[in-house]
Amino acid sequence: MIAIISVVLGIKKHSMRIRPLYIFILFLLFVSCKSSQRSAEGIVSINPYSYTGEKRTVSENGAVVSAHTLASEVGVSILKKGGNAFDAAIATQFALAVVYPGAGNLGGGGFLVGRNAEGKLISIDYREKAPGLAHRDMYIDKDGKADTDKSQNGHLSSGVPGTVAGLFETMQYAKLPLKDLISPAIELAEKGFAISKNEAASLNGLQFALKKQNTVMPVFVKNIPWKAGDTLVQKDLANTLKRILEKGAAGFYEGETARLIVEEMKRGHGIISLDDLKNYKAKQRAPHIFNYKGYTIIGMSMPSSGGVLLHQMMKMVEDRNIASMGFHSTAAVQLMTEAERRAYADRAEYMGDADFYKVPVDMLTNDVYLQQRMKNYDPAKATPSSEVGPGVLVAAESEETTHLSVIDKDGNAVAVTTTLNNGYGSRTVVGGAGFFMNDEMDDFSIKPGVPNLYGAVGGEANAIQPGKRMLSSMTPTIVLKDNKPFLVVGTPGGTTIPTQVFQTLVNIIDFNLSTTDAVYKPKFHHQWLPDLFYFEKGFPESAVTALQKMGYTTRLRGAIGRTEVIKVLPDGKFEAVADNRGEDAAAGW
Ligand code: DON
């Protein structure tokens, strides 16, 4: 390149006299090349047909880290425009609904944990809920068997979507008008964007399911295979977004979009009604807050089990000097595994939508109770799950998802995890409206003891009831140090979510790992049932062998989670790290 420019400009290679001019011209050319990558007239600040993302950024004014480069860039462009972290989180989610159809969504739900510049701690629940016609045994066939195909695929697997209501509930903490926040997504849907090799492969792998689960063939169905660099244009989705821009949440929950959803349901024996949509409300809830070694951990409360599980696991290891055991040492891994096992046994028995079922949160997170839970912990051997079971409460108490972390220079911090449940949810796209519906109904316990998509079991606490929200594992989390944002963390991964957040926090707080190591190093997972210790490729073999000798049944599995972390460095800069397990990207300014 330099050689070509030199020839074109007639510059001799070693001419000292003109070297400053040469460097200056090169600089100008570099800058103009960079800006010519930007879209010519568009609002999207990066060329959506040719882009690469960063895995780690360090910046002064703000940062966004999400599952997709274009979405992270949209978020940062909103920060640059004067928006705060809440504005950026909203815009990033709208963008993800377009560029990351496997999990970014309008037809799903999620949770937001936030802290605004004034120090207010916020959580917003926009989890899907069971339709009015749902009932406890809706997935049990005539022989009494649970039909997980129905709870995981197609029209009947969908809960009433919550995402759009959640974004409007978030608007009260934002500064910019909706038009600014949604326009990049509209542009990306209307003009399209280039898909990556992995996205092409993912869509190709989906063709059979798409044809099976759809009554009107969506744009994702293609007769010749998708390939890297193909442009994905989503006109129907652009029109849905435009209706939301014009009419607010009613542009989704009422009128044309609601009609399209209900017509889609009727074509595929789904049960979501116009009333279900009209009555959906996102809820602001008190976040679940606890202290760990002087840090304030702010997590999501029910109907996500995330905050309580994190609390239980962290407290079960807090007084055991885990740092001295060493990162990835057999002793530390075993201790954390036993904490995970015990917390998940409680999840199965006691956790569900607290609006419908009295979840004994105070008891489950009581220090004495948690010490009691670890009483039969033996550092020399596995405690079989059959000997653990849910804890005995001493008194009655009065895998596809996506996470984004955002921070700004004014002290606003936002962690959002949002999902369709399975990758591409129910695989049903609303005909004429262009978005995937979730298959979140499978997160209910469809029959006591029958494992869901992630192997989690449950019972009464998480049984299906009309209007009830299904129990989640999503764990968007903010950590404060001296009352100021320190970490903004979260991940997808079904039931592995709380254990990944747990490990990421312990990696940073106790093992003092760099943020990239805390995210990239192999993780492990135990969820009580099945009684298996899962680990990722690259996990120390010595620890696996030692655990096997102690009685653990171990299983190598695929990538666990896609953790996105923002850490505030001692000099006040923001370090954003995107997981290298996927095409996730950090962006800062
Ligand atoms: O809410 C939950 O716990 C699940 N529906 C999350 C699904 C998920 O993370 C899938 N991602 N890989």
Question: Concise description?
Answer:
The chain has 589 residues and is an alpha+beta fold. The protein is 36% helix and 15% strand.
Q: What overall form do the CA principal axes indicate?
A: globular
Strand content: 15-25%
How are strands sequenced across the largest beta sheet?
1-18-17-13-12-9-8
Could you give the count of β-strands? 19
Average pLDDT: 93
- The low-pLDDT segments are 1-18, 20-41
What is the CA-CA span between the terminal residues? Answer: 28 Å
Radius of gyration: 24 Å
Q: Name the bound molecules.
A: 6-diazenyl-5-OXO-L-norleucine
Please outline the major beta sheet: 7 strands, antiparallel
Count of DSSP-assigned helices: 20
Q: Could you say which structural class the secondary elements and strand pairing correspond to?
A: alpha+beta
Overall description:
- By secondary structure, the protein is an alpha+beta fold.
- The protein has three domains: 2-42; 56-284 and 400-445, no CATH class; 305-397 and 475-576, Gamma-glutamyltranspeptidase, large (L) subunit, C-terminal domain (Serum Albumin, Chain A, Domain 1), CATH 1.10.246.
- 36% of the residues lie in helices and 15% in strands.
- It contains 20 helices and 19 strands.
- The chain has helices spanning 2-9, 19-36, 69-80, 85-99, 148-152, 163-170, 178-191, 197-213, 235-247, 250-253, 255-267, 274-279, 306-318, 322-325, 330-350, 361-364, 367-373, 496-509, 515-520, 541-549, and strands spanning 56-59, 62-66, 109-115, 121-126, 193-194, 231-232, 283-285, 288-292, 295-299, 401-408, 413-419, 477-481, 484-490, 524-525, 533-536, 554-557, 564-568, 574-577, 585-588.
- The strands form four sheets. It has a seven-stranded antiparallel sheet. The protein has a seven-stranded antiparallel sheet with strand order 7-4-3-11-10-2-19, covered by helices on one side. Strands 14-15-16 form a three-stranded mixed sheet.
- Strand 14 and strand 15 (533-536) form a beta hairpin.
- Helix 4 runs parallel beside helix 7 (178-191) and helix 7 runs antiparallel to helix 9.
- The longest helix is centred in the middle third of the chain and has 21 residues, at 330-350.
- The protein is globular, with a radius of gyration of 24 Å.
- Mean pLDDT is 93; it is low at 1-18 and 20-41.
